[in-house]
Specification:
Radius of gyration: 23 Å
Largest sheet: 7 strands, antiparallel
Structural class: alpha+beta
Distance between the termini: 22 Å
Low-confidence stretches: 503-509
Shape: globular
Number of helices: 18
Helix content: 25-40%
CATH topology of the largest domain: Glutamine Phosphoribosylpyrophosphate, subunit 1, domain 1
Strand order of the largest sheet: 3-2-4-1-10-9-11
CATH superfamily of the largest domain: Aminohydrolase, N-terminal nucleophile (Ntn) domain
Number of domains: 2
Bound molecules: adenosine monophosphate
Number of strands: 22
CATH architecture of the largest domain: 4-Layer Sandwich
Length: 509
């Protein structure tokens, strides 16, 4: 995952962009960046780490201009360096800076094509660079006076050539702000508007919480296959240039289960309400299994809403038996198996008085590898619980996500290896395990909306909406991914070794 924002204002916007990126910090803590355009020149500041580590007063002051694109990075493709952080920039035509959320599945093929056909070379391993260059090459080929039509034509070419999931925002130097959402609308993108006297500012972001915090009114979610263009005078035009509209819309279900902020509303569905409904559905499944806990405890933070509702329906106490230190960072964000186990203990503590001599029902949103889960169960047991059951708001994760969630290789899934809930429970040390079912999940997440017909839940049912994900593509992505994890692991080990030898590495900025 990642977070992106595009902003069109009437005065300096860098500070507001940084505030917006803070709202999207949960979508990526690996790197952050902002590009602005002041009418003449682009300004670009990026760095590794948290938004607040990347932007100080000096950097913000350098980011002049009333148009901006920004990004928080979660490392799926691309190295962990500042050079690979977004936004990325290309000079021609006009100068374009772009940031995105998503994952391109035909990256290798496009990279080759861009070199051979479009005579464009890439300088990073980030997939936004291929989107940026396909867009730029297409825009350069278009002609005619009406720039909006040229933007729509270039967007249509992106949708034709670039496979995978992506929502993006770009500044086109001298022209305005562009945003688009892939033809299946897998990744979220929402548009907001703010009237300032007779002037109107615009903001496109991964999540509605950004709009709320910055005081923009929600206009609407971008439609699948839609391109939006805000011209220099602040006029917004948009067109759906690809996809099958609502029929083909496949928003990622994992956004609701785990990734997005509970205070966001994506495609008409409140993330918080979806989690409450998941908790209710889970309670019925727990009851069917004749599990009789004394207390319901969420694994913080993403499972709290579900646990609360699950406890209410079961008529049990809800207790915060686990506390999270939110300054440690998400477990997965520090990749590597050894790190994950270490991080759990640094991140979570048990409140023994809430679990001692009790049968505890732990509610969590998902099990991917089982590493975190095993550690959490061990901690609760060590604190004196007499039994530990597990209820999970997602169905078993058994297929790689090729669209940007950090689970891309088949061998990492515990549910794929062990198959039955009984065997998985045994492996993670639980006395019982209840998984959500796919039909119950779909019903719960949708709730009353008519807007969403189907979700992308490829990680659960193996149906990849983009249609291009063959076993061959999966193998390529897996081997790329394994190579990258090995590289990252080696870099971390080297850093640890130099630290223990007393050498302080230079912090990349
Ligand atoms: P594990 O037991 O190692 O499979 O980890 C399960 C935990 O990881 C759950 O608490 C989830 O909230 C969390 N989780 C699931 N998917 C992801 C992801 N893509 N990135 C970070 N954390 C995740």
């Amino acid at each position: 995952m990642c977070g992106f924002i595009g902003m069109f204002g009437h005065g300096p916007v860098a500070r507001e962009m940084a505030d917006g990126l803070l709202v999207l910090q949960h979508r990526g803590q690996d790197a952050a960046g902002i590009a602005t355009f002041d009418g003449e020149t682009f300004h670009l500041e990026r760095g590794t780490g948290l938004v607040r580590e990347c932007f100080d007063e000096h950097r913000l002051a350098r980011l002049k201009g009333s148009m901006a694109v920004g990004h928080t990075r979660y490392p799926t493709v691309g190295g962990g360096t500042a050079e690979d952080a977004q936004p990325l920039y290309t000079n021609a035509p006009y100068g374009i800076a772009m940031s995105h959320n998503g994952n391109v599945t035909n990256y290798v093929e496009l990279k080759r094509e861009l070199g051979q056909k479009d005579h464009r070379r890439l300088s990073t391993t980030c997939d936004v660079e291929v989107i940026l260059n396909v867009f730029a090459a297409a825009l350069a080929r278009t002609n005619g006076k009406d720039f909006a039509s040229r933007v729509f034509a270039a967007g249509a070419e992106v949708f034709r050539r670039v496979k995978g999931s992506y929502s993006a925002a770009a500044i086109v130097g001298g022209y305005g702000l562009v945003a688009f959402r892939d033809p299946f609308g897998i990744k979220p993108a929402i548009l907001g508007k703010r009237a300032e006297g007779r002037k109107v500012s615009w903001c496109v972001a991964s999540e509605s919480a950004v709009l709320q915090v910055l005081g923009f009114e929600v206009e609407r979610d971008l439609a699948p296959g839609e391109v939006v263009y805000v011209s220099g005078d602040g006029k917004l035009v948009s067109r759906v240039v690809a996809g099958r509209g609502a029929e083909g819309h496949r928003p990622c279900v994992f956004e609701y289960i785990y990734f997005a902020r509970p205070d966001s509303v994506i495609d008409d569905v409140s993330v918080y309400r979806a989690r409450l409904r998941l908790g209710e559905a889970l309670a019925h499944l727990v009851r069917d299994r004749n599990i009789e806990p004394d207390v319901v405890v969420p694994v913080p933070d993403s499972a709290r809403a579900a646990a609360l509702e699950c406890a209410r329906v079961l008529g049990l106490k809800y207790r915060e038996g686990l506390l999270k230190n939110r300054y440690v960072g998400r477990t997965f964000i520090m990749p590597g198996q050894a790190n994950r186990v270490k991080n759990v203990r640094a991140k979570l503590t048990v409140l023994p008085m809430e679990v001692e001599r009790k049968r505890v029902l732990l509610v969590d949103d998902s099990i991917v590898r089982g590493t975190t889960t095993r550690e959490v169960i061990r901690m609760v047991r060590d604190a004196g619980a007499s039994a530990v059951y597990l209820a999970i708001t997602a169905p078993p994760i058994v297929h790689p996500c090729v669209y940007g969630i950090d689970m891309q290789t088949r061998h990492e899934f515990i549910a794929r290896k062990l198959k039955t809930p009984e065997r998985i429970a045994e492996a993670v040390g639980a006395d019982g395990l209840v998984y959500m079912t796919i039909p119950e999940m779909v019903k719960a997440v949708k709730g009353p909306t008519k807007r969403i017909r189907e979700f992308c839940m490829a990680c659960m049912d193996g149906r990849y909406p983009t249609g291009d994900v063959t076993p061959e593509v999966l193998r390529t992505i897996e081997s790329e991914r394994s190579r990258e994890s090995r590289k990252a692991e080696a870099a971390r080990e080297a850093e640890e070794a130099s630290l223990s030898a007393g050498i302080v590495p230079r912090r990349e900025r």
